[in-house]
Design goal:
Layout lengths: L11 H8 L4 H7 L4 H8 L1 H11 L4 E7 L7 E7 L5 E4 L13 E6 L2 E6 L5 E5 L4 E4 L14 E10 L4 E14 L2 E12 L4 E4 L11 E3 L6 E3 L2 E8 L5 E7 L4 E6 L7 E4 L5 E5 L8 E5 L5 E6 L6 E7 L4 E6 L3 E6 L5 E7 L6 E6 L10
Antiparallel strand pairs: 1-2, 1-25, 2-3, 4-5, 5-6, 6-7, 8-9, 9-10, 10-11, 12-14, 13-14, 14-15, 15-16, 17-18, 18-19, 19-20, 21-22, 22-23, 23-24
């Protein structure tokens, strides 16, 4: 039978086992109990263990434009197992972002927020309330011209265990009397708090691609995926960036329109053909050999605008044509309303979120 040590602390293995099952709010409160408890909460092995368990008790994150307030967005959390509302993350945003429009990527409970009006980038952990404004990437390489498009990707490099941000900025404008399309590609590493600018030869083919917004893209197993199309053409493809090798590659798409890239529970990347008016509602999975296999097909529903992904027991999250978040039972064809409504169809997005102890604050 395990006993407490002479200094009043629990045995390390028992303490780790108990605390790893607790919500982060409780762990942060218990840091003041003893110095060893505080040290444990920052231990990389404990942080990883807690995150692994947290992913089994995750949340559904619903981002939506509030119909009652045209200037406010909601970031509602629902318990993934029960779909009971938890709270709105919007109330915990860093102060410099509370009145600002932004887009984001979310991975391992961390948000990578791209400021809509300044193109700045903030990393944010809602569970620990930590945030970090990233240093400015080397913008001197490309002059700040008009018609800028900013795209980010965010995820974990599994080889170095380092979180990275991929930043792509496209600038269209007149330079020295000539029209030019200019691209800036930067990779940020959390461990060094610094950027590396990719060489021109590494991104030559990427310059010919239009990259679509972040809410249709995702990171799976150390690779970030965007949907893209050739500039001037309507040919859709998937752009992949390996966070370990920091190399882009282009993958053929199984669908001929804009879809939604989603991770599946088995760690595979899938693409859902659910984003167009005459949709097929097909779900395709990318195999290890680089080919796509059709996994499933859901018969089109007249009242549904988009499908967001699976829940459980043959149920999927969908958006109605009026912007409501619904749960659709494929077997019974029943629809359940969550009482969440966007300002219009297309202004509602669904993500998976888990609490994380991963630190992003500066020492």
């Amino acid at each position: 039978m395990a006993t407490r040590t002479s200094n009043g602390d629990w045995p390390a293995d028992m303490l780790s086992e108990i605390l790893s099952k607790l919500p982060i709010k409780s762990i942060l409160r218990f840091k003041c109990v003893a110095k060893t408890w505080c040290i444990l909460s920052k231990n990389p092995n404990f942080v990883s263990k807690h995150l692994s368990l947290s992913k089994k008790n995750n949340y559904l994150l619903v981002e939506y434009h509030d119909r009652n307030n045209q200037d406010k967005y909601g970031m509602r959390l629902l318990d993934y197992q029960t779909l009971v509302p938890y709270h709105d993350l919007r109330h915990h945003l860093p102060n410099h972002l509370t009145d600002m429009y932004f887009s984001f990527s979310v991975y391992d409970g961390l948000f990578c927020l791209l400021h809509g009006n300044t193109s700045g980038i903030t990393l944010w952990n809602p569970a620990t309330r930590e945030s970090r404004v990233l240093p400015e990437c080397d913008h001197d390489i490309i002059p700040k011209l008009q018609n800028c498009q900013h795209v980010v990707g965010f995820g974990l490099d599994p080889l170095s265990n380092d979180y990275k941000v991929i930043y792509i900025r496209t600038s269209d404008g007149d330079r020295e009397g000539k029209y030019r399309r200019l691209r800036h590609h930067g990779i940020y590493r959390l461990s060094t708090d610094s950027w590396r600018v990719l060489e021109e030869e590494d991104v030559e083919f990427v310059k010919q691609l239009h990259i679509f917004p972040n809410y249709n893209n995702t990171c799976v197993n150390g690779v970030y995926y965007w949907q893209v199309c050739q500039i001037g053409l309507s040919e859709y493809k998937v752009l992949a960036f390996d966070l370990s090798t920091e190399v882009f590659r282009l993958i053929e798409s199984p669908i001929s329109a804009l879809g939604k890239l989603l991770p599946l529970h088995d760690g595979c990347i899938s693409i859902w053909d659910t984003e167009r008016v005459e949709r097929s509602n097909e779900i395709w999975v990318l195999n290890d050999d680089g080919n796509w296999n059709k996994l499933f097909k859901i018969e089109p529903l007249s009242e549904v605008e988009r499908i967001f992904g699976f829940w459980k027991n043959e149920k999927v999250f969908v958006e109605s044509k009026s912007g409501q978040l619904l749960l659709y039972d494929i077997d019974t064809e029943e629809l359940t309303d969550f009482g969440i409504k966007a300002s219009a169809a297309g202004d509602l997005h669904v993500y998976s979120y888990e609490e994380s102890l991963v630190s992003i604050g500066r020492e």
